[in-house]
Amino acid sequence: MILTVTLNTALDVTYRVPRLLPHASHRVAAVTERPGGKGINVARVLAALGHEVTATGFTGGPVGSVVRELLARTPRVVDALVPCADGSRRTLAVVDESSGDTTQFNEPGPLITSAEWSRFLAQYGDLVRGARAVALCGSLPPGVPVGAYAVLVRAARAAGVPVLLDTSGEALRRGVAARPEIIKPNAAELAELTGSRDPLPATRDARRRGAHAVVTSLGPDGLLATTAEGTWQATPPRALAGNPTGAGDSAVAGLLSALVEGADWQERLTRAVALSAATVLAPVAGEFDPRTYEEVRGSVKVTTAG
Amino acid sequence: MILTVTLNTALDVTYRVPRLLPHASHRVAAVTERPGGKGINVARVLAALGHEVTATGFTGGPVGSVVRELLARTPRVVDALVPCADGSRRTLAVVDESSGDTTQFNEPGPLITSAEWSRFLAQYGDLVRGARAVALCGSLPPGVPVGAYAVLVRAARAAGVPVLLDTSGEALRRGVAARPEIIKPNAAELAELTGSRDPLPATRDARRRGAHAVVTSLGPDGLLATTAEGTWQATPPRALAGNPTGAGDSAVAGLLSALVEGADWQERLTRAVALSAATVLAPVAGEFDPRTYEEVRGSVKVTTAG
Fold first, then answer.
1. Three-state SS for B231?
2. Per-residue confidence (pLDDT) for residue A251, from 0 to 100
3. Rounded to a whole number, what is the distance in Å from the CA of A61 to chain B's nearest CA?
4. Active centre residues of B (catalytic)
5. Considering only alpha carbons, which residue of chain A is nearest residue B107?
6. Backbone angles phi, psi at B244, to 5 degrees
């Protein structure tokens, strides 16, 4: 089983409108809802790849109930979410059908009490012992200590389970110091962590801070991985036009999927880039298209860098 | 008891953002939720004025559960909503704090089955016999017959209960023919019904179509009422700057409140204009400020028109 942690789960709502006009009234043509938050997205992709996944984190209130209900319909994902008294957040993507552009609204997350955080830690401690890998993903809701990911990384390492951390800001800075196997920042998150805008020296700096491997997403240019075994850049076969929502989460799923199968870095990066590409090209934001995945997988270029 | 009917109830969600930028990502600073749909708004204002109110219509799904939960916290409003299998809609108002402007998104309503419509009719038949007045408000969700309001008007009239109809388009056209006591269109709805943009001849046309009294909201110019007893225009004491959301629903509540107390048209219109004004000036959209209501009430001007 692969364990994904989403402390700030969300209900991702998408509105399609013919055209977004500020200060006007819009009849929404279509509404879609799905469980969200980065770790939940990772769980969905891992499950689609055939892995057994357990999803933990917090959910609460009526929005949280909908998240759980929708998650229950996802095969191979076990719901181990911990209830919180405050309500889970929604995110809203308003898609302008005339341009294809998206306007995003993110509600604040629920306030987590210290008793709820303790309950989560106990649950996580139990789950991590049965996991082959752990993904710690996304922002921290209010009330969760800023050093939360450092605690979770250490617990996974103590249990001998490899852990991937995908977050930003102070949560990333603290989490890196606990020595996770992999971090997966984008270029902006890496620059914020290290103070350097040049990816290669920045990834090396991030490794010195504690990460065993740093996989940086370079958007359309693919992934740059700095590891104990070497440094590689993995690039998609062509420039991809589409919706990048969820592409980073698909990359995380690709890295973990290959990791638990014992694959080397070349295969991990190939899978991550192909899943990202298949997500960018999917007709529904955040989903991935299995045919594109198989097709792209054969033509990802992995070259030695640095 | 006053009965309000909201066939297309909603959860009204408001997001406050520092500034709305199309195609950007926004952190929502504050989220508020309240039960909505025009009849629910009327019920809330009537209850605030001290009336006992019963609210019926349809609610369903997780959004419907939240509507009922919030409604249960409103004193003097009895929940007699009929469950439907499909989910109730949300409306979203995004308030741009830099300009005060609002961008509105309205989800489609739930699909009502013919069995659900029959269940509603039976429930309405029971409720209307115990009512002193009925308000039929807002749009029809998909599946409800377009002649629905005509059926509901006739049932109320058969029970000897006065009925106010506040809707638009074909639902209004059909409903008017069943001879409701009062309709309360705005200028655009009245023009659509009658084909005339001149309010005075248009209200007379609407009376010929079946309405006993036509109370047209003229926005900042107040209300124009054409009745069997005479024609009046009621105007607020001064131009009001604020949010007009819900002002029409407050006017409906004012008309009904005065009607069930046996007040004459002058008092009905005074109350309706003062409540509208107190709604426009309230800090929260759709609420009314009781102090402004009492203050404005003393200085509404009602003059004979036509």
1. strand
2. 97
3. 10
4. 249
5. A28
6. -75, -5
Q: Using 50, 70 and 90 to split pLDDT, how confident is the model at A212?
A: very high
The per-residue pLDDT for range A80-131, each reduced to its tens digit, is: 999 999 999 999 999 999 988 899 999 999 999 999 999 999 999 999 999 9
Phi-psi region of B101 (alpha: psi -120 to 50; beta: other; left: phi over 0): beta
Chain B residues touching residue A27 (CB < 8 angstroms): 106, 108
Q: H or E stretch including A103?
A: strand A102-106
ipTM over 0.85: yes
Residue A223 · residue A273 · CB < 8 Å = yes
CATH topology (fold) of A2-7+38-87+109-304: UDP-N-acetylmuramoyl-L-alanine:D-glutamate ligase (3.40.1190)
Q: Which of B107, B139, B245 to mutate to test the interface with A (most CBs of A within 10 A)?
A: B107
- Whether A101 sits among the annotated catalytic residues: the reply is no
Average confidence (pLDDT) over A157-185: 97
**CB < 8 Å to B62, chain A:** 62, 65-66, 69
Helix residue spans in chain A (DSSP H): 38-48, 61-72, 114-128, 148-158, 169-176, 187-194, 199-208, 247-260, 265-280, 290-297
Residues of A within 8 A of B96 (CB-CB) are: 22-23
Tell me the average pLDDT of chain B: 95
Beta-carbon separation of A103 and B24 below 8 A: yes
Q: Which residues of B touch A (CB under 8 A)?
A: 15, 17, 20-29, 31, 62, 65-66, 69, 92, 94, 96, 99, 101-108
Looking only at the bridges linking them, the beta strands covering B231-235 and B223-226 are: antiparallel
- Chain A residues with CB under 8 Å of B92 CB are 15, 92
| Chain segment A271-282, per-residue pLDDT in tens | 999 999 999 888
- Decide if pLDDT at B283 tops 80: no
Evaluate if residue A270 carries a pLDDT over 90.
yes
For an interface test with A, which of B16, B21, B25, B34 has the most A Cβ atoms less than 10 Å from its Cβ? B25
Q: How far is CA B101 from CA B95, B265, B285, in A?
A: 6, 35, 12
Of A22, A25, A29, the CB nearest to B22: A22
Asked if A27 lies within 8 A of B106 by C-beta distance, the reply is yes
Instruction: Residue B20: list chain A partners with CB under 8 A.
Output: 22
* Strand, coil or helix: B3: strand
For residue A245, what pLDDT band results from cuts at 50, 70 and 90? confident
pLDDT of residue B274: 96
The answer to whether domain B2-7+37-86+111-304 has CATH 2.60.40.60 is no
Q: Structure tokens of A88?
A: 């889970």
CA distance B296 to A293: 66
Give residue-wise pLDDT tens across range B34-61: 999 999 999 999 999 999 999 999 999 9
Among the partner-chain residues B23, B96, B102, the one whose CB lies closest to the CB of A102 is B23
Q: What pLDDT, on a 0 to 100 scale, did the predictor assign at position B134?
A: 98
Angle of helix B247-260 versus helix B38-48 axis, rounded to 10: 50
Q: Give the start-to-end residue ranges of the domains of chain B.
A: 2-7+37-86+111-304
At what angle are helices A265-280 and A247-260 packed, to 10 degrees? 150
